[in-house]
Every structure is written in C-alpha cells, then in structure tokens.
Amino acid sequence: MQRGPLRRLSFVDLYLWGVRISVLAVVLWGSFGTFQADCPSALTLCDFKSKYAADVWLDFIVFGLSQGSVYALIALGYTMVYGILRMINFAHGEIFMSGAYTAYYVAAALGRSGFLNRNPLVSLAVVLVVGMAISTAIALILERVAYRPLRRAPRLVPLISAIGASFFLQYTFRGFFGSGFQAYPEWQIFKGEWAIGGVGILRTQAVVITASVLLMMALYIFVMRTKTGTAMRAVSEDLEVAALMGINVDRVIVVTFGIGAAAAGAAGVLYALVFKQVHFFMGFNPGIKAFTAAVLGGIGNIPGAMVGGLFLGLFESVGPILFLEGLRVPGIYPTGIPAPYQLKDVIAFTMLVMVLIFRPSGILGERLATKKA
Amino acid sequence: MKTGRPTWTKTLVGGLIWGGGAVFVSLVGMVEAFSARQIILGVISLGHLLLLLIGVGSGFQAARRGSEGTRAALGRGLLAGAAAGAVPAAFIVLGIAVNLRGMFVSASPVLFDFLSFGRGSGGVPIVIATSAAAGLAGAAATLLPPGVRAPLVNGVAMTLVVGLFQELLQILLQQGTVQTAMREFIFTPDGLPPRGAAIVFLLTAGVTALWRARRAAVGGWVLRRSAPQQRLLRLMALALALGAVLLLPVVGGLFISQVLVLVGLYALMGLGLNLEVGFAGLLDLGFVAFFAIGAYTVGLLTSTGEHGLVHWSFWAAVPVALVVSLISGVLFGLPILRIRGDYLAIATLGFGEIIRLLALSDALRPWFGGSQGVLFIPKPTIGSFEFSGPMQIYYLTLISGALIAFVAARLRDSRLGRAWMALREDEDVAEAMGINLVNVKLLAYGIGGAFAGMGGAIFAVLLGSIFPHSFNLLISINVLALIIVGGMGSLPGVVVGSLFLIGLPELLREFSDFRFLLYGAALIIMMQLRPEGLWPSAAVRRELRKEEAPAAITAEPVAAERGAEA
C-alpha cells in the first residue's frame, strides 16, 4: 500500500498515535512519580528518590525473571505450533495445567513417603518428567482428535475447535480432581535464599530460572542441530515444499506438538513450585500471557519466544510498582493508584493488545503480519 | 472417505474407545450426578441411560462402518458392545481393588456400586452382557428399513425426553381439568412410570408412522389451496406460535420465566456477536465487555445506591446505554481494525479481560464499586405497572429481542450486510471491490456492541445489582458456543442455540455442572461434523458444503502423506 507520509494520514492513524502517546505518557509519568516518593504534590520536582530500596527492586526483577522463564517455556509451544500450522493452539494453557496438576499427585505421594526431602533433586526430576509426559500425551491426543481432521478447514474452524478443547480439558480436570486448590508439597532445600554474588535470591526462583534455561537450551539445540529439528524448520518454512522433499509432515507436526507440550508440562511444574498450588483454571492466564510473549518475540521464532517471555515476566512484575504506584493524577489519585498489583494483568493484557496492534511481527520476528497472520 | 471393510480388530478397538468414553464420563462425575434422575421410574436412571447409549452407539458405529451382511453387522455390534462394556468392567474391578479416590474425586464406592448394578465385582459379567446387548441393538437399528426405524427411534427419543423433562411437563400441566387428567394419565407425582412410558412410546411411534404414510397427502392438500388460503394457513400457524410464546411465562410460572429471560438475554448477545462473527467474520472473544458496559451504564444511571449518578428511570437510561455501548464498540474496534484472524480473537480477549479487571479494581472503586458492584437498581415501571420479576421482564426481553432480531434481519439484507459478508469471505477482495473496510468494520463492532448493551441493560434490572464477576470470559464463550451450535450467521440459529445451550442446562440442573465440558465437546464435534450449525444460514451452508466436493481433487497431499505413513 503506497501512502504518502502525511497526505493519507487517516483518522485511524491519528487515533492509533493517540493511543501510543497516551500509553507512553502514563508509563513515563508513572515511573517519574515513583521516583518522587517524598514529594508532597505531583506537580513539584523533588529529589530523585524511590519508595523502595534497591534490593526490593532486585527482588521484583528476580521474581519477574522466574515468572518470565515459565512464560517463555510455555510460549515455545505456541510459537512452534504457530510456525508450522499457522494456528493458535488455544488449549496450550490447559496442556500446561494438565501436566502440573497430574504431577501434583506424584509430588504429593513422594512428599508423604518422605522421599521428596531425602532425594530432592531426583524427586524434582521425577515430578518434572511426569508433568512433561502427561502434557505430551494430552497434546498428542488433542492433535489427533481436535486438530488433525480440521487441517484443511477454513481458518476460524480449528481456532474454535481449540477453544472448545480448552474448556473441555479444564472441566475434565475439574470433574476428575475437584474444583478446589491443591497445595503442592514443599521441597525443604528450596526454602530460603541463596546468596549469589552477595545478593540474596529466593531458592525456588533460582531453581525455576536454572531449570527453564536448561530446558530451553536443550530445546534450541534439538531444533537447530538434529535431523528432526531441521525437518521442523523446513515444514515451518513451507509445508508443501517440505512434503515434496520427502519430509513426513504429519510426523513433524506430531513431534512439534509433543515437544511444545513437554516444555509446557515442565513449565507447569516449575510454576507450581513458585505458587505452591494447582487448580483446574490455572492454565488460562499463563496461557494468554505466554501467547503474548510469543507474539512479543515474533511468533514462529524460538529465541524470540524466550526473549518475549522474560521481557513480559519482568514487565508484569516491575510494572505495577514502576508505572502505576507512582501515577499521581491531581485531584483523583494524589498519592498514586491504590492497590496497583491488582492491575498487573491489565498491564500484561495491554501489552498484548499493543503488540498485536502496533507490531504484530514482534521484536525479533520478520514481517509476516498480513501474509501469515 | 474410507472404503473397504474395517478389520474385526478395528471394530474391537472402536468398541474399546467407546468403553473408554464410558469410563471417562464416570470419572468426570457425570454418571453419578445423573444417577439421581429417573427417566422411567424404577426402570432406568439417566446415569444408566448414558452408559447404555454408549453401548448402543458403539454397536451402531461398528455396524455402519461394516456395510456388509446382516449376520456380520450384528456380530460387529455384539463385539463392539462387549468391548465397550469390558472397559468399564475392568474399571470396576480396579476401582474396587484399589482406592482411586485419593486422586479422582468421583471414584467413590457409590459410583462403583452404581456401575456394577450393586453387585461389586460380581456385576462384571452383567455389565459386559448389557453393553453387548446394547451394541447388538445399535447394530440392529442400522439394518431396519426406514419405515420401521423412524417410528421406533422417534418413540424411544420422545419417551426419553418426556422422562427427562417430567418435572417441567408436570408443572406445565398443573392447571385445568383436561391437563390434570392428562398428567395423571401419564405421570405419577414422582416421575414417569413404565405405564406412562409405554403410552408415550406407542403414541409417538403411531403418530410418526401415520405421518410418514400421510405426509405426501397433507403436503399435497396444502399445495392445492389457493395462494390467499395458503397465506392464511401460514398466518394461523404464526399466530399460534406467537400466542404460545406470549403465554409461556403465565403457564410456566416463575422458574420457567427466569430460564426464558436468561435464554432471551443470551439470544440478544448472540444476535450481537452473530453480527460480528457470523456476518462480518470478526471473531470477538471479548464480547462480554459490551454486555458489561450496557449493564453498568444502566446501573450507574438508575441506581438509588451510593454509586448511582442521576437516578434516571430505566427508559431514559436504556437509550444512553445503547449509545454508550455503540460508541465503545467503535472505540474498541478502531485500534484493532488492521488485525486479522486469530490475532483478532486474542486481542479482543485481551480487551474483554481489561474491562473486567478495571471494573474489579480498587483503583476505580469510587465509580464502579469494585468487587462490591453497583447495588439498588430499581425495576422499570410503566405508570403503576412494575416489571418486578422474571415473569414481567420476560416480555421486556421478548420485545427487545424481536426488535433487535428485526434490525439484524434488515441489516443482513442491506448493502451493509452484503459488505459484511464480503468482508467475511475475503478482506482484500472486499477492499478491492470498493468496500470501505474502516466504516464497515466499525459498524459491525458498534452495532454488535449495542445489541449486547441492550442485553446488559435488561440484565442489570433483572438482578437489581451488578458485579464485575458476572462479566467473565465464560460469558463470551457461552455466547460464542451458542451461535456456533445454532449456526454462524443464522438468526433463527441464535435462538435455537440459546435454547439448547442456555435453556437446557438451566432446566436440568445436573447438566449445569458439566456445562462447559459439554460445550467444549460440542464445539469440537460440531467443527468436524456440522461446522455450519444446527440451523445454518443459506450462504454458510452452501459454502461449507461446496468445500466438501472439491476435497477429492485437493486431497493429493493427504494421499501422499498417507502413503508416507504406510
């Protein structure tokens, strides 16, 4: 579309620019206000001083990174499936939930027998493997039953099927395991903090970050170095040509679903380590956020999903304090927004919508917005 | 698709899958929840019926796939049914030996007692035999000539429906001597006794058989009338239907009216979403936001509580609510104009959640009441008549529903409607044809939003208070499910979908626990078997059915993949 820089500026563009500028203004004004903690009024300039000490900020950052690495792991599944099928696996959040929820029963059994704290690392590995296996199994069934028959259908059809699958899985787990929260057992050795480089970091968060980074590295190597990984990349480049080259497309799609689901299952267990409970609806929010992360990093792009996840986790954890707590609006919010942490999901969803509107190709993605999206 | 007979192993595997389904419905808690509802008093409960239907289904499918001689078909049905029974039988043995309850909340002794007909592990042969018999019956149903099958199937179906809804029917037949006599003839106060079931079955089967024999004659008689007479007949049928609709709350009472109002509200939302998804092809998962906006506008404008702004009457607030939700539809549509397909769905989902979270937050509590919501919303009044309860609000819903359905129908057939359909088919081509995408899309969001806003306005006065928790994503999913089940782009489909998906679970309380499970399954199954919905619009049906025909030509890559698999 050829457009002169100003001549064809429509009211839609103006509106979009208005949205951009107002969001930017809120962010800047809020961050500015946060560092003006001692100021009596919003409109006077004071010394640069934050309400929180540096180590509190660091805590937020580490929490954001651990959250973000979980999002990144889930986002991998979205990104890989989208890369190959151009389809949003709306039920991916439920795949994440199913692994975590089922692994809970293993973890609880290990906890009751005392094995959990005698061999903490072995039992963590066992729980992770169970979560990954269950998630993979469910994803493969899902692919076979709900997605494969619709591969050639109009675009809305598989998406609606995926939405149906998402609710089906949620309420299946609700029927199986009940509608309450289940408390994950605690690993004694992961309690407390580790001092890393003179800074105290919560052990669970360190474990989560390490485990997810290791998993992501393994996955990246798998996709880049193995024959199957090469086939996956070829199929995501062009499904039909890849089929002509003798690649078994069905098998590649199954492998992709499986790997994405395994990552999501592991992410589910790690998420449960941080939040210490599981619930049948727990997959919804992380699912949407991981999708945001995938889009943020450029959908179809594996390193992009990792970067996007970390970025989103960081934003969501630091954002409410940085942008909102100090957002003083004279006359309405003289001391900033009350209870800003309630709005952390609003920040994530606003980011989602903004990315979809303004840069659907993501940070690292190529320009595929209109062609493939 | 598949030609050639399936092997017997495949029949066995098919049966085992059906059996897995039986275990699934047991574990998910359906069987136990349904076991309380007797379909035919003392003979069969809904729980057993469900399991029996699984057996019948396995046999039916096995025999249909085979398409061979009578004896082989029956054999397949028997095998599949037995296999379908073997899985729950194994489950019973396992469940009695091992305590599964630590994991599966439904795997209680009550469940196993129910599954095994109260005989524990000793019930295993009975379970397998019953299921095999059901499979045999299913297979036999495929072999009957249509003249016999239709009355039989209709009779059984009608008996089951009457048994299922016996409470409702008994309420409907409470007044009047004729009705009471009918009720006492068929029902007992506890339900449908075997005698009543037999009567219903024979009656339905007889009527079906008669209808099949006389259908051509009746149709011919109608066609031989002159045109004005035909019009008169049609008018009479219409007047009859209208009278029934108007009298429903009076006859049905409070509970029925409540259900009908809910059905109506969802139908209102469905009409709005249908305009976006069905006509214009813009999948919107944040649709509940407009419903919320309509409800909050009316709430804030009329409430006599602390959040009320101006204490207007309902009638003054409704136009404002419509305009506000229309404008918010446009404002909501503006930024996402250039997003397409799947991304659009997710972006709208984000929007819907943002609205809900904002209404819920403490930051906006001074205006919207936070999680406490807006209370004390007065009921609408005309003169001294007050729309005080569901029975009165039903008429409000009915009138606004009729108005909105009329507007939607006129819009569909207008230039704008055709532009929407063009947009749905192909955005780029539509733009090339000179359709102003911006206006057309914004109108879809705006008008769709206004429809939902109307629903929200009625919702606010129905409950008398609004809470942000009422506006979660599940409402959007409900609405989406109902227009898909009814048929995307079809106006009667919205009503049908709303009756099925909203009315049924309300009437059968056992179902409402499993509502979203069933919706999910319905969406998956519908997308594969009947993507056009129960009552499709003509255009969608043509399109979807056409795509099936050339599938044979484009199937080469599929064939290649199949070959690679083998």
Can you characterise this structure?
- The complex is a heterodimer of chains A (373) and B (566).
- Chain A is mostly helical.
- Helices cover 68% and strands 3% of the residues of chain A.
- Chain A has helices at residues 11-34, 54-85, 92-113, 115-118, 120-147, 156-177, 203-225, 227-237, 239-244, 249-275, 284-296, 302-325, 344-358, 369-372, and strands spanning 182-183, 193-196, 199-202, 277-278.
- The longest helix of chain A has 32 residues, at 54-85.
- Chain B is mostly helical.
- Chain B has a two-stranded antiparallel sheet with strand order 1-2. Chain B has a two-stranded antiparallel ribbon with strand order 3-4.
- In chain B, helix 1 (8-27) packs parallel to helix 4 and helix 13 runs antiparallel to helix 19.
- The longest helix of chain B has 53 residues, at 227-279.
- Chain B is globular.
- Mean pLDDT of chain B is 83; it is low at 548-566.
Q: How would you describe the oligomerization state of the chains in this entry?
A: heterodimer
What is the name of the CATH topology of chain A? ABC transporter involved in vitamin B12 uptake, BtuC
SSE run of chain B: HHEEHHHHHHHHHHHHHEEHHHHHHHHHH
What is the number of domains of chain B?
A: 2
Number of strands of chain B: 4
Task: Spell out the key features of this protein.
heterodimer; A: 373 residues; mainly alpha; ABC transporter involved in vitamin B12 uptake, BtuC; two-stranded antiparallel sheet; 4 strands; 68% helix; 3% strand; globular; B: 566 residues; 2 domains; two-stranded antiparallel ribbon; 25 helices; 74% helix; 2% strand; disordered C terminus
